[in-house]
Specification:
This protein has 146 residues and is an all-alpha fold. The chain is 67% helix and 0% strand. The protein has a domain of 102 residues. The chain is built from five helices and no strands. Helix 2 runs parallel beside helix 4. It holds the Pfam family PEMT.
Length: 146
């Protein structure tokens, strides 16, 4: 594994985007809604922690590029196939508002596109191979994002 591949994980991408957002907020602060931002970030963290707890409860991995042993479709996974990534996006949007980094809000869309390409598509391929018709039925009833 190359050194860059070793750190190519969603939390690293989120940290990088948060860093850019924070810098934007320092360089070009604009009026925003910091309380709303903290609320969004808190909602994102709660969603992420709930999804992680469900995956631990189901005894399957939450680490990208590892093989899942179970398909989790209940709880927050009944609302979105990717609650951890939705949580990441909410944290990025929320902290951008909190840091008065309104100009950084387009980073949320860029972050979502990168996560989609670098992680979700591959994860869905693995899930499709591992769980076949069960995963197809889950995709038919549950959206990828929201």
């Amino acid at each position: 594994m190359t050194p860059l591949k070793a750190i190519d994980y969603p939390p690293v991408w989120l940290a990088a985007f948060l860093g850019v957002s924070w810098v934007v907020g320092r360089l070009v602060p604009m009026a925003s809604m910091p309380v709303t931002g903290l609320g969004l970030a808190g909602l994102g963290a709660a969603l992420m922690l709930t999804a992680l707890a469900q995956m631990v409860w189901a005894r399957t991995t939450f680490v990208p590029r590892k093989s899942p042993t179970k398909l989790v479709t209940w709880g927050v996974f009944a609302q979105t196939r990717n609650p951890i990534y939705v949580g990441d996006a909410l944290i990025l949007a929320g902290l951008s508002l909190y840091w008065h980094a309104i100009l950084a809000l387009p980073l949320v869309a860029i972050f979502v596109m990168i996560i989609n390409r670098r992680f979700i598509k591959g994860e869905e391929t693995v899930l499709r191979q591992a769980f076949g018709a069960e995963f197809a039925a889950y995709c038919a009833r549950t959206r990828r994002w929201l």
